């Protein structure tokens, strides 16, 4: 379990990092919580490793009324402690174990795009985005683009980032006024990737009507987002029926840990729990 | 045995070292050694057509590459079949490197030696092996079908077949007894594969100085590795020494020897004239060491209205993987220990051990007992359900009574000796466990169940262990025994025995294990035997030393040895504390000296005037030095027992299974150290929870182990292991001087049975297959409730 040979780059600034990525067929190393095991098991064999840990300016997170922008080097644990976004904070507590959260990065987890991971679902349910940068060789400078979540997660372990691109930050929009959020999952052991999980945002309007949106993990090629739309008055919303809609939107696969039927069943159970919890919180926030 | 140390919860003396990173494990040694790595078969079954090492030769740092054809005849022989048995008619073992055919994914094919492990693995990745694929045999059903063969010369894939029959007192066989019984049941049980998974994998490091070979191995038996390596390399035994450094867990997998690597690494060190080391990585441990547990059992039982078993007929299919280096110990243990604390009218057990193209099966903590106990305890629960009786009442009706000991089960145990239980009190133990868990007041409701499981464990198997005890002139006591330690707390428990026997403070006692330079005769640490066999050997050696010390002190004090006692390191005349002599001085007197190298030594030199001029300095029949050596060889195993009970809750929606309480009553005879015993029980229960709810080795139809990493092979974390409540019963063993029984494996043995019992109670349908996951419980609900 030793990695195959690779060339190691440790750029000191963003420009150098982007230039390296433009020049070589490289893989970005941030927290390394997925990449290093994959290297050691020789499941990945990049010729170049671009370690961005020394790049200045990527660690900061920015909180505005619009939402939280998390820098590429912000660790799970830092973002969790900052508690700037209730759903993000809740989801981070479900990510693996404290030791992994001390090193792993939020943006790295998004780029890794594991369909069973929590953070892609959070970004997707909130309609957030990832900011990607690449080096424009002709122009001699960095070029940025903002990739919305629905375009970012392309498939299992596959994001929309180009080989020369670096995800420099991710933006998690703030919950609308009168909103509640919840993340429910079942994993085999504490901290494991979920067999199935559902995060939900329920927004209660000034009229008391609830709108809901959910995203599921572990039951599709990426986060499965279901916009449930308007569900009527929050006190009388049909959460069971809404949960059934979420369940029907998923098409999970069987693996050694769970049958497809069980996963699908879990989605229904967890969606109802998540929606009810989010609705309770949303109603309280609205004072309804 | 009068001082208080024996039986006290003395804190483990090894823990400060082991818990603060001061342990010295195999991979901490030999930093300058060359590193070995192996090309292992990616296929479950294939013929090797060609091996092209050419592409690897350019790797910087490469030192050597070996295939089977490069090995000398002696080194290239098939590995020994360690425990032959007449029923093992088709025993097969692997070659150190595959010879022509590979029979499981992970079998070593090429050995690479390089300056470091990175380079060695790079070279491995470049070596091209051309395989001609054969259809693999995966799973018991396919093996029994026999259409494909794992070994061409083993028809039907059957390695061993053994029928054991114990007729009822009236002479009826089990099948007759079942036919004649008022009630009968028959059913099938399944237990899946798991494995030892020690924190530290296997590993070996060898040094050759041109004459002597020193081997360090992460092993449970350094003396056996020594003999095996000497035999394989054709070296005289005195030229080979084997040392087990700190070993990070064994659980059975490290009792198998020699591993291919234990032959190849020392051979490479000799051939290259360089130090060579190999430390197993986790993937290698998954696919290249050993697994256990997998069995299918077909059970037929006949019983009376009280639930008393009149006849029991069990047919076991045992998956032995690709090879049988450790013989058929596992199914033998299952067959014999299945009977547990019960007297069964007539018993017939038959096992068929079959080969499959999977990792070989050798003992893993419990060693066949968890399967046997699962069978018997499921049977007890089914009888209770059939008769509408309380599950504990049915067990009680079948117990061997305390006055029936020694109780002969009429079979031959794994040590080749009669299966005779030496002592126990099962009704009392049942009373204790029911009280501890609150059996009679348990409030049952849907999704909440209680379960119980009972077992008897033959422990402390022979043939022997030895102990050597030396008191030096500084008053320190040096204890050594040949068997090894993998975290059991031997440094503490053996020191307690020595301190108590010799009357010295425990701080003055040090213990060395697993170093053939210090003690060359030993069997090993397995089968819950270390405390029983080495513990008693050390006690006997201490008694020799004590007797000698009293004899010498009596001379010096001009007293009768019978009037002397030792306390706090001082030999004194009973009732006259002032008339005393320290053991350190006795040690000086025990070794007459010519040269005074320090002040203490001066007292033993020829002009010091202490010795009588009329006698030789070392009296006839005496030896110099205050030391002694003795051995303990048990007549047969001593039988520990335990009963576990658990309360589980099953989620009605998610089918998650939560163990909310877990209780253990345990009897390992006299306790040397209750804290260590409880630690063993807790660790065992944790492993048992793994086996019951999490762990399984999943092979696909191609013979690929699809979960060969800790990502997908789920071992319980601390968060998954319940708090374990324990209570002890002490029925001393009459077989050994200290009255002790083994405790190492106990905790793991009944856990699957207990959890199955509790889940069944919570859900109301039969649970006959372990482990059980939430997904499986969900599917079982759908099958049973529609």
UniProtKB/TrEMBL annotation, chain A:
GO molecular function terms attached to this record: FAD binding; oxidoreductase activity
Protein's name according to its UniProt entry: Carbon-monoxide dehydrogenase medium subunit
SMART domains: CO_deh_flav_C (SM01092)
InterPro entries: CO_DH_flav_C, CO_DH_flav_C_dom_sf, Diverse_Substr_Oxidored, FAD-bd_PCMH, FAD-bd_PCMH-like_sf, FAD-bd_PCMH_sub1, FAD-bd_PCMH_sub2, Mopterin_DH_FAD-bd
Protein keywords: FAD, Flavoprotein, Oxidoreductase
Record's keyword annotation contains Flavoprotein: yes
Domain FAD-binding PCMH-type: 1-177
Source organism: Nonomuraea fuscirosea
SUPFAM superfamilies assigned: CO dehydrogenase flavoprotein C-terminal domain-like, FAD-binding/transporter-associated domain-like
Stored Pfam families: CO_deh_flav_C (PF03450), FAD_binding_5 (PF00941)
TrEMBL record, chain B:
Annotated ranges, domain Aldehyde oxidase/xanthine dehydrogenase a/b hammerhead: 20-135
Any Pfam family hit: MoCoBD_2
Region (Disordered): 606-627
Molecular-function annotations in GO: iron ion binding; oxidoreductase activity
Keyword Oxidoreductase: yes
Keyword terms of this UniProt record: Molybdenum, Oxidoreductase
InterPro entries: Ald_Oxase/Xan_DH_a/b, Ald_Oxase/Xan_DH_a/b_sf, Ald_Oxase/xanthine_DH-like, AldOxase/xan_DH_MoCoBD1, AldOxase/xan_DH_MoCoBD2, AldOxase/xan_DH_Mopterin-bd_sf
Protein name: CO/xanthine dehydrogenase Mo-binding subunit
Source organism (scientific name): Nonomuraea fuscirosea
Organism phylogeny: Bacteria, Bacillati, Actinomycetota, Actinomycetes, Streptosporangiales
């Amino acid at each position: 379990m030793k990695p195959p040979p690779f060339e190691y780059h440790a750029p000191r600034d963003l420009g150098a990092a982007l230039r390296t990525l433009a020049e070589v067929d490289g893989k970005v190393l941030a927290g390394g919580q997925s990449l290093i095991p994959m290297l050691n098991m020789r499941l990945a064999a990049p010729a170049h490793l671009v370690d961005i840990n020394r790049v200045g300016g990527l660690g900061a997170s920015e909180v505005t009324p619009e939402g939280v922008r998390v820098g590429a080097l912000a660790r799970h644990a830092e973002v969790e402690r900052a508690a700037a976004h209730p759903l993000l904070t809740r989801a981070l507590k479900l990510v693996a174990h404290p030791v992994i959260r001390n090193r792993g990065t939020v943006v790295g987890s998004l780029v890794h795009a594991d369909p069973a991971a929590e953070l892609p679902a959070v970004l997707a349910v909130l309609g957030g985005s990832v900011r990607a940068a690449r080096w424009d060789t002709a122009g001699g400078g960095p070029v940025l683009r903002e990739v919305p979540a629905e375009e970012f997660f392309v498939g299992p372990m596959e994001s929309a980032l180009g080989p020369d691109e670096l995800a420099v930050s991710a933006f998690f929009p703030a919950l609308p006024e009168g909103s509640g959020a919840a993340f429910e999952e079942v994993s085999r052991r504490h901290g494991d990737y979920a067999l199935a999980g559902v995060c939900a945002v329920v927004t209660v309007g000034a009229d008391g009507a609830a709108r809901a949106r959910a995203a599921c993990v572990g039951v599709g090629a990426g986060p499965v987002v279901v916009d449930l739309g308007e569900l009527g008055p929050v006190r009388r919303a049909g959460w069971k029926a809404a949960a059934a809609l979420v369940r029907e939107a998923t098409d999970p696969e069987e693996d050694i840990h769970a049958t497809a039927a069980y996963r699908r069943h879990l989605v229904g159970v967890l969606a109802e729990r998540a929606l009810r919890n989010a609705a309770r919180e949303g109603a309280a926030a609205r004072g309804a | 045995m009068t001082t208080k140390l024996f039986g006290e919860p003395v804190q483990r003396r090894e823990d400060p070292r082991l818990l603060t990173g001061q342990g010295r494990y195999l991979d901490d040694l030999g930093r300058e050694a060359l590193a070995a790595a192996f090309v292992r078969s990616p296929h479950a079954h294939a013929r090797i057509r060609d091996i092209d090492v050419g592409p690897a030769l350019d790797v910087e740092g490469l030192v050597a590459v070996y295939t089977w054809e490069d090995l000398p005849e002696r080194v290239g022989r098939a590995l020994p079949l360690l425990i032959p048995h007449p029923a093992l008619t088709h025993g097969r073992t692997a070659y150190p490197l595959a010879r022509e055919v590979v029979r499981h994914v992970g079998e070593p094919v090429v050995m690479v030696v390089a300056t470091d492990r990175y380079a060695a693995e790079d070279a491995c990745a470049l070596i091209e092996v051309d395989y001609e694929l054969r259809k693999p045999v995966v799973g018991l059903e396919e093996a029994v079908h026999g259409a494909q063969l794992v070994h061409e010369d083993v028809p039907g894939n059957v390695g061993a077949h053994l029928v054991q029959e114990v007729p009822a007192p009236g002479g009826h066989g089990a099948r007759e007894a079942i036919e004649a019984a008022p009630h009968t049941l028959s059913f099938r049980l399944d237990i899946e594969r798991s494995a030892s998974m020690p924190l530290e994998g296997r590993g070996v490091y060898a040094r050759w100085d041109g004459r002597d070979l020193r081997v360090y191995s992460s092993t449970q038996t350094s003396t056996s590795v020594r003999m095996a390596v000497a035999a394989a390399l054709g070296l005289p035994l005195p030229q080979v020494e084997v040392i087990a450094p700190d070993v990070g867990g064994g659980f059975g997998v490290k009792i198998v020897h020699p591993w291919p690597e234990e032959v190849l690494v020392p051979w490479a060190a000799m051939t290259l004239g360089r130090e060579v080391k190999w430390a197993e990585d986790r993937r290698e441990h998954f696919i290249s060491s050993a697994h256990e547990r997998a069995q299918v059992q077909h059970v037929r039982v006949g019983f009376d209205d009280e639930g008393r078993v009149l006849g029991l007929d069990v047919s076991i299919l045992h998956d032995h993987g690709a090879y049988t280096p450790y013989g058929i110990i596992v199914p033998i243990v299952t067959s014999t220990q299945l009977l547990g604390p019960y007297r069964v009218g007539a018993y017939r057990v038959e096992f068929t051990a079959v080969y499959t193209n999977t990792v070989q099966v050798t003992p893993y903590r419990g060693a066949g007992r968890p399967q046997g106990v699962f069978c018997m305890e499921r049977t007890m629960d089914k009888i209770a359900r059939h008769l509408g009786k309380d599950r504990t009442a049915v067990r009680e009706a079948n117990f061997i009574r305390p006055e029936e000991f020694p109780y002969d089960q009429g079979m031959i145990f794994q040590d080749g000796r009669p299966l005779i239980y030496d002592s126990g009190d099962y009704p009392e133990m049942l009373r204790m466990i029911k009280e501890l868990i609150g059996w009679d007041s348990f409030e049952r409701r849907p999704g909440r169940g209680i379960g119980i499981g009972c077992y008897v464990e033959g422990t402390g198997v022979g043939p022997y262990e030895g102990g050597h005890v030396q008191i030096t002139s500084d008053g320190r006591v040096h204890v050594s025994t040949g068997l090894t330690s993998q975290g059991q707390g031997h440094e503490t428990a053996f020191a307690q025995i020595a301190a108590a026997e010799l009357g010295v403070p425990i701080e003055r006692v040090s213990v060395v294990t697993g170093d053939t330079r210090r003690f060359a005769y030993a069997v090993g640490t397995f089968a819950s035997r270390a405390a029983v066999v080495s513990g008693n050997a050390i006690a006997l050696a201490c008694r020799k030393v004590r007797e000698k010390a009293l004899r010498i002190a009596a001379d010096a004090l001009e007293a009768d040895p019978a009037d002397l006692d030792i306390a706090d390191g001082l030999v004194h005349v009973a009732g006259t504390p002032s008339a005393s002599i320290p053991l350190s001085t006795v040690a000086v007197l025990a070794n007459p000296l010519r040269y005074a190298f320090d002040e203490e030594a001066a007292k033993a030199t020829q002009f010091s005037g202490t010795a009588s001029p009329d006698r030789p300095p070392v009296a006839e029949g005496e030896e110099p030095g205050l030391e002694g050596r003795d051995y303990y060889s048990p007549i047969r195993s001593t039988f520990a027992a335990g009963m576990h009970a658990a309360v589980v809750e099953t989620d009605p929606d998610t089918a998650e299974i939560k163990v909310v309480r877990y209780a253990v009553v345990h009897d390992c005879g006299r306790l040397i150290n209750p804290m260590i015993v409880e630690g063993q029980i807790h660790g065992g229960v944790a492993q048992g929870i793994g086996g019951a709810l999490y762990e399984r080795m999943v092979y696909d139809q191609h013979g690929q182990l699809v979960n060969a990493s800790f990502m997908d092979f789920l071992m319980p974390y601390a968060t998954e292991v319940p708090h374990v409540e324990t209570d002890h019963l002490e029925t001393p063993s009459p077989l050994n001087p200290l009255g002790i029984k083994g405790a190492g494996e106990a905790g793991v043995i009944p856990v699957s049975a207990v959890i199955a019992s509790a889940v069944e109670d919570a859900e109301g349908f039969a649970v006959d297959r372990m482990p059980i996951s939430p997904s499986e419980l969900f599917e079982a609900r759908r099958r049973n409730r529609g």
